[in-house]
């Protein structure tokens, strides 16, 4: 259903995913099963710094409706209803987390050939309202994002961005954190099979005069194995090896090292996701 420029959150997403997606420094095990009647069950166990936690998620799909139910080890219950095409080119998402009765949210997304809009409203007595708008095409988009607190009558966020997307490249400029953070990213793919890609990102925080430059890349060694790496100017080097054991079942090994302080213990992670 996604058409045109997409949503504001899509600006710079490809570059962000290449630099951050699948990097994990915990021990994580995920097991998923699916039935022919549209019910899927996913069990996740995570070990963080000697502390174990996890959750169980159940998903039910029926035509244009998806119901997600997730229960974690602290007895929090997150429920999400997603309804596509409730109106033409429109998606509605309702979510709430128990026992927090003030956590309810309603999100409405609208997709057009030359525009994308979304609105998120808190379902409580003093809701916050987030609005985003994007205009353009699948190749070029300009978008804005704003948040408003109805209790304090104050703006909670205002961001802007633009992106240029072609089959072989994706470039974006984002002004975020109420104008305090300026971020530029560029990603280039070298062949149509996405066997290798590189990315560079420059982020400047004006309030602290801090610049962060990150470069990274991904290379598909064979149809089942991918390696990724990233390095920033603060000396943080990350690497990742991902191997598909069988269709949809993936083993991921991650590591991060501080090249400016080699006496520090490196961060290591392992994730195993099994699907039928």
Automatic annotation (TrEMBL):
It is found in: Membrane. Its main location: membrane. GO terms for molecular function: porin activity; voltage-gated monoatomic anion channel activity. One of its GO terms (cellular component) is pore complex. CDD domains: Porin3_VDAC. It holds the Pfam family Porin_3. Transmembrane segments: none annotated. PROSITE patterns: EUKARYOTIC_PORIN (PS00558). Signal peptide: none annotated. Keywords: Ion transport, Membrane, Porin, Transmembrane, Transmembrane beta strand, Transport. It comes from the Eukaryota. InterPro entries: Porin_dom_sf, Porin_Euk, Porin_Euk/Tom40. The keyword Ion transport applies. Belongs to the eukaryotic mitochondrial porin (TC 1.B.8.1) family. PANTHER family: MITOCHONDRIAL OUTER MEMBRANE PROTEIN PORIN 5-RELATED, VOLTAGE-DEPENDENT ANION-SELECTIVE CHANNEL. This is Mitochondrial outer membrane protein porin 2-like.
